[in-house]
């Protein structure tokens, strides 16, 4: 039973990449990355396991129960597999990076809980992954590209772009991994799945309207942060708001990711999920600031929901 519980905790950690607390969703995501190559799935699971064990040792069992201290490690594992050519060093760096995510997560939690920005209730989300992986695979190790993403043209290219937006979240590639992740999202919750699709389709439409072309849009590189921000704002952090407000927030968040993605790409660090993080934090800060202003002026604004994301 203890072994099954441990496996479930690790899989929940993998599922939390997409804000889901579901063992079966985690298993489908592992299957999706394993479709690209089995050892990539091993790196993702090992990363989630290492962060979970590190958090359990430092913070206790309750901190890892829902997988909240596993998803950044899983992403570090995916980044290690994408950045390194050989399984052994990649798995080694997955463990090192995942363990480093534990104290980084704690420091960011304290920062976001401080009086300076605590009023905005900003979630840590994937920031530990971005910071740790950015150091490990750009500053410490030479970044080795994982190859050109799969692309397509015409109607098949459009469909591929919608699915690649999901697979690229975990640094995977291809229609089958993307489809498996979409299924995982709907297993985790209808709302999660629908807002994930909304983010992917809005980003795809935006890329096509901006003249990027089907081939470029089909890579999914312009859509993976859009998927995350749409889920976060539409299905997680603002659940007490009306549907129209959540859809509006999701669409605005997607637009921001598409503006930030090319801007961040010129910096000498990996982009990873920074467009998602910065877009989500910016919108949450703005909404929280407006709420505070109305409250100070004697208004009765709607209470801002706090994300169940550490």
UniProtKB/TrEMBL annotation:
GO terms for cellular component: plasma membrane. Pfam families: UT. It comes from the Bacteria. The chain crosses the membrane at residues 12-33, 39-59, 66-84, 90-108, 120-145, 165-187, 194-215, 221-238, 243-265, 271-290. It is found in: Cell membrane. Belongs to the urea transporter family. This is Urea transporter.
């Amino acid at each position: 039973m203890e072994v099954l519980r441990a496996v479930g905790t690790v899989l929940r950690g993998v599922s939390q990449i997409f804000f889901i607390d579901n063992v079966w969703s985690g298993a489908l995501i592992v299957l999706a990355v394993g479709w690209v190559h089995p050892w990539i799935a091993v790196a993702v699971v090992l990363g989630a396991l290492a962060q979970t064990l590190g958090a359990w040792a430092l913070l206790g069992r309750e901190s890892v129960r829902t997988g909240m201290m596993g998803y950044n490690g899983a992403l570090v594992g995916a980044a290690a597999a994408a950045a390194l050519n050989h399984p052994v060093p990649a798995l080694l760096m997955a463990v090192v990076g995942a363990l480093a995510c534990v104290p980084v997560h704690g420091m960011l939690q304290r920062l976001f809980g401080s009086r300076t920005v605590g009023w905005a209730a900003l979630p840590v989300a994937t920031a530990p992954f971005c910071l740790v992986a950015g150091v490990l695979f750009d500053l410490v190790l030479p970044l080795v590209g994982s190859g050109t993403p799969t692309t397509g043209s015409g109607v098949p290219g459009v469909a591929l772009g919608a699915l690649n937006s999901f697979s690229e979240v975990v640094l995977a590639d291809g229609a089958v991994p993307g489809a498996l992740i979409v299924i995982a999202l709907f297993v985790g919750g209808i709302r999660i799945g629908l807002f994930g699709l909304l983010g992917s389709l809005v980003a795809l439409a935006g890329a096509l309207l901006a003249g990027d072309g089907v081939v470029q849009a089909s890579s999914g590189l312009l859509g993976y942060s859009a998927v995350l921000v749409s889920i976060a704002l539409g299905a997680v952090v603002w659940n007490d708001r009306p549907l129209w407000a959540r859809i509006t927030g999701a669409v605005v968040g997607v637009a921001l990711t598409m503006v930030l993605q090319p801007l961040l790409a010129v910096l000498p660090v990996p982009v990873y999920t920074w467009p998602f993080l910065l877009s989500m934090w910016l919108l949450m800060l703005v909404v929280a600031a407006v709420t505070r202003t109305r409250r100070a002026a004697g208004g009765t604004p709607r209470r801002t929901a706090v994300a169940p994301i550490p």
